[in-house]
Amino acid sequence: MLAPPRDETRSGSRALFVVCAATLLVLMNYTAPVAVLPETARSLGAGLTTQTWLINAITLGLAATLLVAGSLGDDFGRRRVFRIGLALLAVSTAATAVAPNAGTFIAARVVQGVAGAAILAAGLGLLGHAFHTGAGRAHATARWASMLGAGIAIGPLASAALAAVGSWRWFYVILAALAAVLALAGGPLLEESRAARAARVDVPGVLTLGAGLALLLVAVTTGRTGWLRPATLVPLALAAVLLAAFVAVQARGRAPMLDLALFRRVDFRIATLGALFTGLAALGPSTVLPTLVQRLIGVSALGAAGLAFVWAGASFVVSNQMRRLGTRVAPARQLALGFALTAVGYVTMLGYADARSWLRTIPGLLLSGAGSGLLNAALARMAVASVPADRVAMGSGANNTARYVGAALGVAASITAASSMLPDGQSAGFSAHGADAVLLLGAALAILGIVVALGSFTARSPRRS
């Protein structure tokens, strides 16, 4: 009943296929190291602190450039930015495949994050242009959101399977080839779109935001070794200064990258805060969970990837089904329900490490995965609907920036929680009590997410769905 109109199906089906395929590759790549982190670290000679960067480096590239990529896509062409992102993904992924040491791998992962930012921001912007009715956008954004879950599900499983039969490097060889093929064959299937205004680069905005977010993530990542150390405090202070400068530049600029007036709109505020808490509560703890299961219970890399598949598979199924419900469910209500399922799922898993039972995680993974699916579908829809039609890529960039900044903060907080409750005599590593602390932290953040979502019910409703 809520399939997109026929004219939108004809004009948007090719865009939907290409954008969804590229999004799948980005998310597969994003989560690939999670299940094979021990093997990757040994091969690259990475210590415990450096291992955090093996996971978080791509988040740095994503978060620092998503808003920039969205703004450039609106002004200079969304298809152009999208194709550049695919080409950059192919090259940087090939570099990770042949990386001789941890430094090279981390640098390549940062570039992969930049490429992913261009694909995600411009891709969702292309869908916002191709599907302009409420039903069409609900259909397209639900499909796009389901690719987030699918990529998270397939990435760790594929990398673990290839590592088991050969090497962790094979995953990146194959993904680089797929990205190159999609860049060459998929680009001509897309129609160019851009904002009807003079194209101009907000150079001060690009520099202050990119540098500020990069320094923030550096501080968050190094914080697990001590929050009062100069290596953490100095980048944190510089990040605060640069992000304050970014806000000042946007408030006074003639063509700002981010229109701060959008924050006066309830739907935009809820979408942005909802994305931040999705990263904090859903992505952060779930990214750390496979490593904890491996180290505390002794599950193999393939088994840990299988658990990640359960969580992300539930996310994929639920996101995909939201295309059938379409505009019948308010996005803010979806957010509240998604956060509630996430919290309940985490509480259900409490005690799994102490009992040394991976089976105890299955019900919680299904519940929290379903919650993630609701969150992804609602946020994709709100990111497009909460901004003017000529700024859809910027809306996508702002929403995904909040999501991946939240994810980086969530990963760092989860690792800190997991290693903060060690038994007497143990100076490093993780404990069963730490595993429960991660789940309780995630549940608390999800409850705060419910509060954020429900805040929209006391204000005016979103004007568009």
From TrEMBL:
The keyword Membrane applies. It comes from Phytohabitans houttuyneae. It is a multi-pass membrane protein. Its main location: membrane. Residues 15-461 form the Major facilitator superfamily (MFS) profile domain. InterPro entries: MFS, MFS_dom, MFS_trans_sf. It is found in: Cell membrane. The keyword Transmembrane helix applies. GO terms for cellular component: plasma membrane. The chain crosses the membrane at residues 12-32, 52-72, 84-108, 114-132, 144-164, 170-190, 202-221, 227-249, 270-289, 295-314, 335-353, 365-384, 404-422, 437-459. Keywords: Membrane, Transmembrane, Transmembrane helix. One of its GO terms (molecular function) is transmembrane transporter activity. This is MFS transporter.
